[in-house]
């Protein structure tokens, strides 16, 4: 397999095709480890006119322990940094071949931009600073949600930022991620979990996002940044193995008590996974009609704070060859079971006020996929659930979001035919597949009590896959 | 070039990679010609429970002159077809190798689906019928706009249709397009221009869409299906050559008087193009500050009904190498000039009540593109304009939409380096680049007086490109 790839990218035609698809030189991505510093190094800060989030940002950067340096476009930063007790200085470009440390992140506050004629500092900052960003560095641009803008010109300028950050993600390479956070006016303090996630090695495989942070009607609960899920109970379906086990592991590491669900035939693996995490195994078939009521009964006494609908199956065939059973079982397990379980847990009040629902969608659900009409339908339906339920659940301060994994290295993807697997691995800004932990860490961010401003959203975990709609 | 491609797809590794990317066997797409029938052959009709658009659809199909046959899921069709004086019968699958004519289109009415447990007939219809669809056939699924659904389950089911139609588009191949039309309750009659466009060879390179048809507050004007733009005046920027000249040509063929704008240095080409169309050339530099007022003055006497913002430039470089001039000129010409011109024409009342604004965006504006941070920003901004202005303009019954071309064969794309060009051409469900006329026909649909229910939308013209966000 490696030889075929190597031979191909070293042939004249292959080298040209590979170059254009971004196949070569995948970077070893830096990922989160509990025994290594999560945040370190220098952050360069730039800003457009009237930057509205710089003050909150200075506080957030101070709490991470990183040092912020100000590009000339962000003169205000120095004073704000001093006020937050943050080390600071002027941004100086890092020369090629310099021994000086490169930047860990580039942050740009575009919240005050009201018109596309005000983009000059956006260009100037990234023109000056992008080459100074180190491997696996982070680009985060802050804007205002377009649909909340006062007039079409502001809306246009804010929406234009999506094209900008996605282009930077595609040209930066070297394991660098590029994301956009739209922070609603008044929601600045709610952005902190999102800023931290996107600056952290936890978001190694998350690039090209436009995350919206909205205001919420209640104050955030207190939490411990080191163990934000302490005291919380998380239900994870399909938890015995693979991505589900990784989700369970990350949520447990963040302090949650995990209740892992999987089918009775996976009971041994489930018991093993849960034992390692001090979790609770529940061997239920989520497709069984009696399961929602049984789950509600099993969870009733202590309630639950987080539901992760991870369980899912594939039964790929073109529609002409697909059996009715293959169609029905994929829709039922991947989508209808989520509906039945959530309805039961919400009706019984088992999912607590301030809870979190996270569905697992897929790039296939966004873009469709040949031979996966059943799977893509179910995963597009997961997107529909998130969009359709967010405002209703908001009344109980419950958020609902989905993650949409791209190509993730699992036992399932290991069985994909070579060429499709290889294409899926390379056709993204990281030139590689993601790891189950990348999905799990993204879910942990959404499950965080501080992520109350993030709801109704679909978060791609795809290394900025080329594939989309 | 062709040899390298042929050699590659015939090598063992190349054949496998090519197969997975959909490189082989591009179909010669059937396109619209005035001297050939636009609609012909058999349409198979399927339906879910309580289909709400079948009645309107029977009328539309009758007016095209096609014949509709009913799948067992759409038993109601026979009676409706009779009422509309439409030839009809029962759908029979076409056997492989049969001399019997294949279907021209498969239509499915999913408007009544309220829950994902009601998808069985969706599966059954396409399972039975997809193989009977001929080359360059059409798939159209009808649903209800998710955001207007009464409850989350209905929203989920309706939203799930996107994953389904996109998957079918990707697996059908053979020049077949697959699109979804979300028709708001009460807007059934407004869907006709969209249904016709998506059934017509005019939409040869349009696949994977989810178009929304909303109700409008005024009755549609009368129009002639043969020359729907008769009596209308259309301003087209960048009209001298390429896509702009094609847009001008199609709008003129539909009956519009075209006022073509291009820069003074392209005056000869512009004059030539306009002479052929009995149009009016206006040699203006859209970037010049005085142009909006001059345009408004030049158009004032007769007003204008349609504005197509087609003029655009590229100045590609990575952000670190991009000059400030390259940044600024691309944003200014591709985006800010549109704002200045529209503002002037709207303020002066030059764009008439019931008018149409169509901006040209790009897949780069959706997904970002390396080396195009300026261009992608400008094209994402075009999306922002459309979304930000639609409700304001709705007060004057003016619609605003954008087209987002993928890889279109032009003099500009002919200069793209080989491998990038080749990848762009093949990485879509048609395995080929589109033609300028594909963009032009899509714009003509949006410019149609009957397309009043389509506004605030971004329509990809990309052969269902893999690339997206």
From TrEMBL, chains A, B:
<dbReference type="InterPro" id="IPR002347">
    <property type="entry name" value="SDR_fam"/>
</dbReference>
<dbReference type="InterPro" id="IPR057326">
    <property type="entry name" value="KR_dom"/>
</dbReference>
<dbReference type="Pfam" id="PF13561">
    <property type="entry name" value="adh_short_C2"/>
</dbReference>
<protein>
    <recommendedName>
        <fullName>Ketoreductase domain-containing protein</fullName>
    </recommendedName>
</protein>
<dbReference type="InterPro" id="IPR036291">
    <property type="entry name" value="NAD(P)-bd_dom_sf"/>
</dbReference>
<dbReference type="GO" id="GO:0016616">
    <property type="term" value="F:oxidoreductase activity, acting on the CH-OH group of donors, NAD or NADP as acceptor"/>
</dbReference>
<feature type="domain" description="Ketoreductase">
    <location>
        <begin position="232"/>
        <end position="411"/>
    </location>
</feature>
<comment type="similarity">
    <text>Belongs to the short-chain dehydrogenases/reductases (SDR) family.</text>
</comment>
């Amino acid at each position: 397999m490696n030889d075929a790839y190597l031979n191909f990218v070293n042939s004249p035609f292959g080298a040209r095709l590979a170059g254009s698809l971004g196949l070569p030189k995948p970077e070893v991505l830096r990922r989160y480890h509990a025994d290594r510093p999560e945040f370190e190094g220098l952050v360069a800060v730039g800003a457009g006119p009237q930057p509205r989030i710089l003050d909150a940002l200075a506080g957030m950067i101070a709490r991470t322990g990183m040092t912020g340096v100000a590009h000339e476009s962000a003169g205000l930063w120095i004073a704000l940094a001093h006020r937050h007790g943050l080390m600071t200085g002027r941004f100086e470009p890092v020369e090629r071949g310099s021994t000086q440390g490169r930047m860990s992140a580039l942050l740009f506050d575009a919240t005050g931009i009201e018109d596309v004629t005000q983009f000059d500092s956006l260009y100037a900052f990234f023109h000056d600073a992008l080459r100074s960003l180190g491997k696996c560095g982070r680009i985060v641009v802050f804007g205002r949600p377009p649909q909340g803008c006062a007039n079409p010109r502001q809306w246009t300028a804010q929406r234009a930022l999506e094209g900008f950050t996605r282009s930077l993600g595609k040209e930066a390479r070297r394991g660098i991620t590029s994301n956009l956070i739209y922070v609603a006016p008044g929601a600045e303090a709610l952005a902190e979990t999102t800023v931290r996630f996107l600056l952290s090695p936890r978001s190694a495989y998350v690039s090209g996002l436009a995350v919206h942070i909205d205001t919420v009607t209640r104050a955030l609960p207190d939490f411990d940044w080191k163990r934000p899920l302490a005291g919380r109970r998380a239900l994870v379906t399909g938890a015995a193995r693979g991505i589900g086990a990784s989700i369970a592991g990350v949520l447990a590491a963040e302090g949650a008590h995990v209740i892992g669900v999987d089918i009775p035939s996976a009971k041994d693996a489930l018991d093993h996974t849960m034992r390692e995490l001090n979790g609770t195994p529940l061997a239920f078939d989520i497709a069984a009609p009696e399961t929602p009521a049984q789950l509600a009964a099993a969870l009733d006494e202590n309630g639950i704070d987080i539901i992760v609908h991870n369980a899912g199956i594939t039964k790929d065939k073109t529609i002409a060859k697909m059996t009715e059973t293959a169609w029905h079982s994929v829709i039922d397990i991947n989508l209808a079971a989520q509906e039945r379980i959530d309805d039961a847990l919400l009706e019984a009040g088992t999912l607590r006020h301030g809870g979190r629902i996270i569905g697992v969608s897929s790039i296939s659900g966004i873009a469709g996929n040949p031979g996966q009409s059943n799977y893509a339908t179910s995963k597009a339906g997961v997107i529909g659930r998130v969009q359709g339920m967010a405002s209703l659940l908001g009344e109980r301060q419950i958020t609902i979001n989905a993650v949409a994994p791209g190509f993730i290295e699992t036992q399932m993807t290991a069985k994909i035919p070579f060429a499709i697997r290889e294409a899926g691995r390379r056709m993204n800004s990281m030139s590689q597949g993601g790891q189950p932990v990348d999905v799990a860490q993204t879910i942990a961010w959404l499950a965080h009590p501080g992520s109350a401003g993030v709801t109704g959203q679909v978060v791609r975990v795809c290394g900025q896959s080329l594939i989309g709609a």
